[in-house]
Amino acid sequence: MKALVLAEKPSVAREIARVLKCNVKNKGFLEGPQFVVTWALGHLVTLAEPDDYDKKYKEWRLEDLPMLPANMKLKVIRQTSHQFQVVRNLMKREDLKELVIATDAGREGELVARWIMVLSDWKKPFKRLWISSQTDDAIREGFAGLKAGTAYNNLYDAAVCRAEADWLIGLNVTRALTCKFNAQLTAGRVQTPTLAMIVNREAEIKQFVPVDFWTIRADFGDYFGDWRNQAGNSRIFNYTQTEEIAAKLKGHQGVIKEVRTEGKSEPAPLAYDLTELQRDANKRYGFSAQKTLSILQDLYEQHKLVTYPRTDSRYITSDIVPTLPARLKSITVVPYAELVKPLLQKPLMPTKRFVDNNKVSDHHAIIPTEKPLQLTSLKTEERNLYDLIVRRFIAVLYPPYRYDQTTLITVINGENFYSRGKVVKDQGWRAVTSKSAEKDALNDDALPEQTLTLSKKGDPKQVKGCKINKSKTKPPARYTEATLLTAMESPGKFIEDEELREAMKGSGLGTPATRAEIIEKLLYNNYIERQGKELVPTSKGTQLIKLVAPALKTPELTAQWEQRLSNIARGKGSKTDFMADIRQNAMELVKSVIDDTAVYKADNISRTKCPVCGKFMLLVNGKRGKMLICQDRACGHRQPEKQDDFGYKSSKNAGRVNQKLIAQYSDQGSIGHNLGDLLKVALAKENTSGE
Description:
Layout: E1 2-7, H1 10-19, E2 24-26, E3 29-31, E4 35-39, E5 45-47, H2 50-53, E6 74-76, H3 81-91, E7 96-102, H4 107-119, E8 126-128, H5 136-144, E9 147-148, H6 153-181, H7 191-207, E10 212-219, E11 224-228, H8 239-247, E12 254-266, H9 274-285, H10 289-301, H11 324-329, H12 337-344, H13 380-395, E13 401-412, E14 415-426, E15 460-461, E16 465-472, H14 481-489, H15 498-503, H16 515-524, E17 528-531, E18 534-537, H17 539-547, H18 555-569, H19 575-594, E19 605-609, E20 616-622, E21 625-630, E22 638-640, H20 654-666, H21 675-688
Parallel strand pairs: 1-4, 1-7, 7-8
Antiparallel strand pairs: 2-3, 3-4, 5-6, 8-9, 10-11, 10-16, 11-14, 12-13, 12-15, 13-14, 17-18, 19-20, 20-21, 21-22
């Protein structure tokens, strides 16, 4: 008897099959003496569409909302149904005694496998492969220690709740908005509050009124000092006061009032989770969150150089510690060899900043695997991202960065001027980071570092000069993907309720695995756009936030859901109670849209008239490029933006299709018409037929 192994992707399945010696290739699976390895293509099964419950839902009508099926149904995804049939047929084989779920080790991966099992009516035993890297050793160890499949039932329940909640909230609110305002508008439990943060930030920027302020710097020859008041503030918002302070310096000598030297110790930053890596990759290389995840997935699956990407932990567990020397040896190549060398010369003693079992749930931090590194096999972007991961991994094993920080306070005629300098005692982990990564983000009021000569309290100081600098207050910065990821991860500051804000610590908008996708959806739906690194809301996005219910555009609701989903995954929450609340939310949100008296005005109207109804068409983002869509939903005509002289999109099939249309309509006596008009009529008929 054999075991059936179900992976999430063909590439992963092939690697598992090779390790398990499944060398016989078949259509959709690989077979060996003990295992049969097959795969999904992402999701093969999804929740049924509204019209699968009732044909009336094929037409979008406000009076049919909310849609609240008593029991949610599943259906096979048509585009990948061929692979589903392969998997289901394998599940019916009598010589396969058990199933090993080898999909991604996380909430969504669990859902991929379990839904396939449900529609294939799998009743035999099943186990779970739970690994954090794709190396041969990790796969072998994982199969040697397979977990009971039922141990992940709570994780599956959380995944089902997530999917059904998105269906009930997303589809109902999207249909309500679209029907109410006769426009293609979408809403969701994560994307809408995320969009609201960007829209609100833009409003703050537009409403911001800059204010003049002044700062004063005194030159003492061998160092300079910046004026501060008793509260430690350097900004003066009254120019008269500025002049008065400057006048007090003239003809007066300074004296060192205080010399304070403190030993400082700065520990290494924590290891990477997905969100932190996406932030740094955006700051350093301008990578979008989605691009970082895509590159990281290749480093994990294809190159097998890093551990599981979709993690929310920045720590490792104690059982990983014995593998650290092997991981370090695997990266002893230029430019890392000299950095690794001192670590391998003595026993490793990682601290709680790196090893903490209590701060690892499903997966530990992203770190290198034991596979020997060959940098030449990596593309430039892969190498850049891998460099961030490796340097952070090495850095967290290095000692703290230690320095002596000296602060001088020089007083002149009763006014205090502050100076700061430091002497490095031990570079520690900073010797590992690249130079561009060492730049600390200083706020405008931070004292600049300078070289200070040996001074002592009471020393007189001659004032060589005084400089007044005029500046203006700055509006809050627009979100970049890096700062937006931070806001999504920790939306607590946007929540007014103190108790909820405290309860939300550790929760956020979406998960590390979904935040990149949410940002891409906002861009795709033309709610926001990129301007350099900045994310700016469009008119459509700004209007949408004014139309949706307040409950859906604040982080509280969705953050509560994520927290409850996390509790369900841990066996500490009720699936039934959660879904009951979601259904109630759906009803309330639909009612709020129906009762709304606002007006929506499309800002993406093109100059192209619909060939069917004559109304001007909307220019939108399609899956294959820009599309023109009739603004009247009842018409529904759509066509590519770029068309040839005959009104049909240029492609290798255009000639064949045009000839077919000409023949079809010439047989009906239309051959006397202008060829361009003929094809436009034909194209309109083709498009409205849904083909």
